[in-house]
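Q: What changes when FE2/S2 (inorganic) cluster is included in the input?
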Amino acid sequence: MTTTAKEPAPNVGKPMPGPPIGLLAELTHRCPLQCPYCSNPLQLKSVRNELTTDEWLRVLDEAADLGVLQIHLSGGEPASRRDLEPIVEKCANRGLYSNLITSGIGLPRERLEKLAAAGIDHVQLSMQDADSANCDRIAGYEGAHKRKLELARNVRALGLPLTLNAPVHRHNLDNLEALIALAVELGAARIEIANVQYYAWALANRAALMPTRDQVRRCLGVVQAARERLKGVLAIDFVAPDYYAKRPKPCMGGWGRGIIVVTPAGKVLPCHAAETLPGMSFENIRTHALGDIWRNSPAFNSYRGTAWMPEPCQSCELKEKDWGGCRCQALAMTGDAKATDPACDRSPFHARMVELADTESATEPPPFRYRR
Ligand code: FES
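A: The predicted holo structure follows.
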């Protein structure tokens, strides 16, 4: 049974975007890997709290009715759910483009064939490094690299499109050329090279992960050259590192604008890390309809649009491009979720952010605090 989000929305009267384009379905927090930059919260949800199969199927029906186009099946490791096949099948039946975001572990050929038969549209495989020993070390899982390569080859053998997800940081940035070459060798159509965003586990591991300014500079050259060399062969998406930036990124494409996140326990969030924001509560799909949450949730409306922005954002000509950057990063760096994202050089905290990056990257990295 669902009820309506009753509290008055603080941003009522502000521009309401259309339906979300994508829904990130965090099916589970269970994962064989222990990456130190995982976007899951530090307090992981146990299997006992996870939505049931029927509840996920209802979420997908509601997403389709709302106008969502793409479902990103994520986790944790989504293959840890035994009901991944009916979930994929529901996406196919409702005309939802399904993108499986996987560690590559727990997906042998037979299971992948079942998912292909169920209608999976696309596979996104995380790749910690091209070097197998370093990949296993970062993932905290011996043999991870070998199994990832097997999965990638099976994906292509079944004719499914493949993207490599390569989160980059101090421990793998110098192998970027090899990561790009690996993507080509595996037949990926795309590689997403994303500098780690410092929230959740990555924030806890920031000093261990922070790249040096020189590493970042070299990586920009590698990406630019590879883009020219591999035109028509491999698309290269690149997410620049905030700590060395001058302008913030529109986190999630803007708060409450295009993406909706459903956690394993059914909470509906505007971004992965939204639960770190104090004083904010989030509706649950078990008690509220997805469309109602999208339109009326006070949490979604708090930072939607531009009316909430303080100066200098309010009079900034870029405010409808970056949508204020990242609220979770603003909170982590300044203690105030409303503050200007310190990735912006107009923020009074920007210099502090740059100093942190320079200092942390110049010191011996501490051991990883693995996600457990
Ligand atoms: Fe929450 Fe960026 S991660 S707004």
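Observations recorded in class: DSSP finds 14 helices and nine strands in the chain.
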